Amino acid sequence: xxxxxxxxxxxxxxxxxxxxxxxxxxxxxxxxxxxxxxxxxxxxxxxxxxxxxxxxxxxxxxxxxxxxxxxxxxxxxxxxxxxxxxxxxxxxxxxxxxxxxxxxxxxxxxxxxxxxxxxxxxxxxxxxxxxxxxxxxxxxxxxxxxxxxxxxxxxxxxxxxxxxxxxxxxxxxxxxxxxxxxxxxxxxxxxxxxxxxxxxxxxxxxxxxxxxxxxxxxxxxxxxxxxxxxxxxxxxxxxxxxxxxxxxxxxxxxxxxxxxxxxxxxxxxxxxxxxxxxxxxxxxxxxxxxxxxxxxxxxxxxxxxxxxxxxxxxxxxxxxxxxxxxxxxxxxxxxxxxxxxxxxxxxxxxxxxxxxxxxxxxxxxxxxxxxxxxxxxx
Length: 378
Ligand SMILES: Nc1ncnc2c1ncn2[C@@H]1O[C@H](COP(=O)(O)OP(=O)(O)O)[C@@H](O)[C@H]1O
Ligand SMILES: [Mg+2]
Prior knowledge:
By secondary structure, this protein is of the alpha/beta class. The chain has three domains: 19-217, P-loop containing nucleotide triphosphate hydrolases (Rossmann fold); 223-294; 304-374, Arc Repressor Mutant, subunit A (Orthogonal Bundle), CATH 1.10.10. 51% of the residues lie in helices and 13% in strands. The chain has 15 helices and nine strands. The strands form three sheets. Strands 2-5-6-1-7 form a five-stranded parallel β-sheet, sandwiched between helices. The chain has a two-stranded antiparallel sheet with strand order 3-4. Helix 3 (75-90) packs across helix 4 and helix 8 packs across helix 9 (243-253). The longest helix is centred in the C-terminal third of the chain and has 24 residues, at 279-302. The protein is globular, with a radius of gyration of 23 Å. 37% of the residues are buried.
């Protein structure tokens, strides 16, 4: 039997665990044409969640487009990616694609080709001199036009939205702000990963998108949700995993979806049909994972300054919620002063190696935390 645990890409259907509350919240947000910022650290399940929520929408009442901004690097690729996603979400055949593209985007030059599987896809060329302002404007006006014309609600998702901070100007951010305010029948959902960048975009007064949308931080999945999900997959594969073994797994991964799936994947590989998962097997699976990451973790570790390493070791060895600027922590971990600790925290936050957590900090990569905890040397 194929390993049922998936990590890395978008998960859906039987590979998608729970998120009932979040799905209901998103559905309500779509229904009310809300503008939302859904953010979390990487690989926590934003894309999978929104993907599932969009698939559940009744087709007749909704049109939706999902735009992945990850591969974009400037205003032109933003325009091309957005125009393409909107056009493709509105049409099925090659003929429709071209028509739709022409109707919606008079400033762009569409062409339709077939992808490797023979499915038609549209690409856009440009025909312009000077700033891409009017093209951005036109592409961002399309969702409202569709809503008006089709009497349908429209949902637009921009994934990895922090990417716009890499663009040459803040033109896209400024245009986004004005459409967010104008388009009453369109729901805009912005997904973002690099937490400090997202905070900069939406919580910094000087940025165009300051407070332009509601906030929705996405958290881990609770252990009681993982228990039936994981137990069932083992059972279906004629293997056994007891509730307390799953609790052990979730304690190691803190319920983080990617790490939980990854660890279960390794555990499944080690567990023979007919066998039950034991603590020893969980330890062995953890070792397999850490060995696999060891090269990358070592390189990362070596790139850190001494106080950053001390701070990480402190976080890895102390219980959650520890205050790294407190005198006791500073002394125990040889940081010298609270301001050294502060500087280390700032640079680790900037690299997204740690994350704020209720007045404390946690190491973003759960396996890196365990790896650090197991290392004795400086
Ligand atoms: N609801 C879920 N149930 C089970 N696994 C999940 C779920 N959401 C995410 N995952 C796991 O996390 C991985 C990353 O998910 P993804 O949606 O790409 O996260 P993000 O968009 O936040 O980076 C998936 O490949 C999967 O292993
Ligand atoms: Mg994603």
